[in-house]
Fold each of these.
Amino acid sequence: MTMAKYQITDVGSLAKWGDFYGGFSPESSYLGRRVLDKELPFEFFGVTVNSREPGDGVDFWHSHSKLEELYLFLEGEGEMGLDDEVVPVKGGTALWVGQGVMRVWRCSPSSPTALKWICVRAGGDRLANLSGENSDAIKVDASERPLPW
Amino acid sequence: MTMAKYQITDVGSLAKWGDFYGGFSPESSYLGRRVLDKELPFEFFGVTVNSREPGDGVDFWHSHSKLEELYLFLEGEGEMGLDDEVVPVKGGTALWVGQGVMRVWRCSPSSPTALKWICVRAGGDRLANLSGENSDAIKVDASERPLPW
């Protein structure tokens, strides 16, 4: 149990989100990603802050067996692949995804700006029991399951 | 257990966040607030989307006995009261608050824009077991504990 009463980090204004850097591990870090649960003492949920340039996206599918997620898009235009569907997203789209759904995303090549979003995840347990070595994530390489665009 | 695989709602672009309306109940609804867990089938966490005009803020204190919260500010300038401290916040401030901390917030009277933020909350249980009739929230009226500004 954490002893902090509150704790602050700074992700910068939306205009600067393409400049930050971080991930779940040094190996998974890249420009335009911050994993706030690596910076703040979350116990029960996790939050990532994301920016992707036009045409750029994730290069693997993943799903979660225990975590539900919210993708809250704030700026730009993009697409999410959800199992066999492709859904357009843009600033204002709030997309809840349940357990077991395979997902990928990209910023559309024609997007006027980078695609910027927050992803929140939680399950019915402490986050530490659902991530890292105890991860509930299932990853599928694009060589096994082609991306939908 | 929900059967939806994914579900979408639209909160509009950041520029429009002052125009939406909603709350935990009709009585608690006001302009500049959307409770996404009333619109999407969240099981384990909840998310509110908020906009307050310069000088406007909450008029009561509250704390949570079981939920932790993240306040992620996206635009504008404001202040949060956290027990006996007052912390400045602005677009980019990510503020994690632990259980038991009394909190209030306002958009600064001098803020160049409305204060806009997302609040995420979760505990170690289903959200339905921590809200509504089972709420872990403790509210204190400003007549009992004066606001810090």
Amino acid sequence: MLPAALIRLVRARAPLVHVLTNPVAAALSANALLAVGAVPAMVEDADEAAAFRPDAVLANLGSLTPGRATAIRVAVEAAMLAGRPWVLDPVAAGSIPARREFACGLLASCPCIVRANASEVLALAEGVGTGRGPESTAPAAAALAAMRAFARASGAVVAMTGAVDHVTDGAAMHLIPGGTALMARISGLGCTLSAVAAACAAVAPRLPAAIAACTLFARAGERAMAHAAGPASLAVALVDALADPDLLGPA
Amino acid sequence: MLPAALIRLVRARAPLVHVLTNPVAAALSANALLAVGAVPAMVEDADEAAAFRPDAVLANLGSLTPGRATAIRVAVEAAMLAGRPWVLDPVAAGSIPARREFACGLLASCPCIVRANASEVLALAEGVGTGRGPESTAPAAAALAAMRAFARASGAVVAMTGAVDHVTDGAAMHLIPGGTALMARISGLGCTLSAVAAACAAVAPRLPAAIAACTLFARAGERAMAHAAGPASLAVALVDALADPDLLGPA
Amino acid sequence: MLPAALIRLVRARAPLVHVLTNPVAAALSANALLAVGAVPAMVEDADEAAAFRPDAVLANLGSLTPGRATAIRVAVEAAMLAGRPWVLDPVAAGSIPARREFACGLLASCPCIVRANASEVLALAEGVGTGRGPESTAPAAAALAAMRAFARASGAVVAMTGAVDHVTDGAAMHLIPGGTALMARISGLGCTLSAVAAACAAVAPRLPAAIAACTLFARAGERAMAHAAGPASLAVALVDALADPDLLGPA
């Protein structure tokens, strides 16, 4: 399914996305989901999470707390058992050993998509710590082979975002160029793409879902750049662009 | 008291509002309170909350955690004992049974205003779960009778926001039309209205306070729409509009 | 070192700043750090914090929770032992006794900069509660002597922000005028300045670091005011201005 058709399906079905994420990305993620026609729900309590029935789940490990870690475990286990898609965003797995371990433990619950930067991909794929913080310190090229092997081993589609986004299911490698360099200065934007990828996975298979989310953000960033005077106005214009049903072309 | 005069009183008195809310709505709520001349304080620790003396309290149940749930119980109990107004925003009470139970338990501490969508009103009034997530799946018309009965039974003014806002103390039903449909795409905007309603309740009786908050947001949304290219720029322009002392007319 | 040169050094070195802060200020702080070329990391778990090696730490006490309090204790102790700079932002220490006590306890770990408003300075310096909430209720003039004595006693540079910012190491008192009054209506902006001060302290001595952060925000506020229609558009334009490498003059 092409990105434009897939995003229209998100808008038509309005999937309920259970977003477990960090405080920095929470508002931006919720607003991006509303912009594309999905419905965000930020249930953080493990007991509530156990009883919740969303259409997809995002497990973002940024600013992890013991409470959110428990809720994440419960939510992704429930998603797996119910056959609902969930997306793993292993924030800072490249630089915090405990974070990498937690992320690897979650792989047993079969995420449909892992959205990460190059350092995080290397950390999950090879147990190598290369990041210094949440940002990537590894070039994308260094992670491509690991990324493909990791996709095959985990069964997840891996979306590695950066100057060019790479998406693979372990076979072909899909490149999504575009966007703008200034997007790297918007805190939580990668986390937000992960949330939208979960919405996409609720309505379509994992590979086109990951490609659609990356394509959507690349196009939104390009259009927003025309209205931006810096990273904060870029973020505003980017969410505005996400809300345009015709961003990826008219229906 | 008319909305314009009431909002001017908020600006003159600068009430201190203890905001207990979810991470998505926290910054927007704090900025909206500052915009209307109130002072937000986001005390989350139960011990600190017990010693805190605000002019009003907001108990918003979004993304509830055990820690915030305890702080909310402490804060609303203290508010009731001290005769200070507090506002209940029962986020997702329509779709999460534990949330509905928690909300119903808080009613014993006598909120002055309950701000909710139609699904949440039905959940509190009739114990019926109709929501699928935080958004309402019930039409406003279906909740009007329940809303009036619930206001009478609880003693709270109920403000049900939607395409048209409805406010009742159990007797007359006040309709506040206006705003713009795009406001539904701003995550946490209802939560933010609840915070401003608490500021209003600190300076005036509950019925005109709830009406003033709804009126203020409707006018702010209309003015903001003229400057908005999508939901994110609408949110920026809406807070800018809230900061205009003459938004509801010149003094 | 002059502010312009110091901020260029931040951009060149990209210090990793461990930001422990409240949910209201989290996104704004992260975006401001990215805008000036620093790298924010919001590690909240005490075990993760103990293993983390940032270039500087911000301990902001807003919306303190038991979990974040523990992480703060661990992070600032680790920073002191490793000789890394950390900044204390004692939010609401002027109005919440437990907050003041916690802040005073942290002084034993030797913050390099304490960024506070006048009420918070008085609370830390003299154990006097003068604030009503997070905002200051004391005039800056009333706190100047206490501020200087507190800087000498604690060994920290104290940056007291307000209509005019004051910075002292206990000897000379540096005044940084400028900015715009509307900046007081942006929730979390002082917290954000504290985060940027930590980035500055990672690349330069504490006194010029504190002066540079205050100078940067004053200039950013002035430039942003030209593009602002209210506090929300001011915040957007202010972060945009922070991202301009030439904000304090061409290289």
